[in-house]
Write a structure and sequence with these properties.
Blueprint: E1 6-15, E2 18-25, E3 28-36, H1 41-56, E4 66-71, E5 75-81, E6 85-86, H2 87-94, H3 100-121, E7 133-135, E8 141-143, H4 152-161, H5 170-173, H6 175-199, H7 208-217, H8 230-239, H9 250-254, H10 257-264, H11 269-276
Antiparallel strand pairs: 1-2, 2-3, 3-5, 4-5, 6-7, 7-8
The structure holds adenosine-5'-diphosphate and magnesium ion.
Adenosine-5'-diphosphate (ADP) binds at residues 12-16, 18, 20, 31, 33, 64, 80-83, 86, 89, 131-132, 134, 144-145.
Amino acid sequence: ADIKDLIFIEDIGHGSCGTVGKCSYKGVIMAVKIMPRTKNSYEMSRILMDLDVICLSFDCPYIVRCFGYFITPTDVRVCMECMATCLDRLLIHIRQPIPERIIGKLSISIIKALHYLKTKHQIMHRDVKPSNILLDWSGVIKLCDFGIAGRLIESRAHSKQAGCPLYMGPERLDPSNTNSYDIRSDVWSLGLTLVELATGQYPYAGSEFEMLAKIVHGEPPRLRPGNFTPEFCDLVEKCLQREPNLRPNYNELLQHPFILFHEQQETDVEEWFADVMGV
Ligand code: ADP
Ligand code: MG
């Protein structure tokens, strides 16, 4: 592969760790994420390891396909399949909540993607949010951006160094527990994402400091029962529990009545998407 064959077409967007542009590579349209290289060689090696996992994940239909990456003296360029939009931009564009039947379908995709990452590659995502859930024109929903994902084992070693173990809670000191403690923070992120999609709004308000304080000390967000089915409210309530060990794992989530129900449904996501986009 030659980086000279990568032709820039237009900007897609900017994020916390770089920019994404639409490019053509030998006639194939791709989304290319450009991230500045870090001088920290430890971090750089982590990024490269994550990239290898992303590129290996093409056997999961719910994860954005990665074709490969280029490393230049100044940056890393990851070539991915180009999707139509991400869910945060979609929310802004349609200016209304996403209907529950569509959320049912996308919950299935996202939970299966997270489950796949955990069972196949022993990693957690760490950055589940609407902008990392993408949709293509045929209505396929995929997860992307293992931006700060690290291998579970590594992250465990890492979390032991962060903070003094004498002051850590028992669940963090018990090595057999660290696993579930870690991975279940993705389940919280999933729950919060679902609330945002279902209501059309990020559930906390105020300054960043105030929002963080509410997340740490306040009651977790809930869906209003009148507006949604009891099954959907229950799924969100189970994901958004402050105690990580009480949150369901992926097998439990896949068996949840909300998920089982929507797996039976023939929801036409493609038609809905074309409709709201005015195509
Ligand atoms: P963020 O932190 O918002 O996720 P990113 O740098 O990951 O920032 O992405 C910037 C923008 O590019 C986002 O709007 C995202 O949805 C979009 N994007 C990322 N990857 C793709 C892709 N494969 N296809 C289409 N759009 C993408
Ligand atoms: Mg992203």
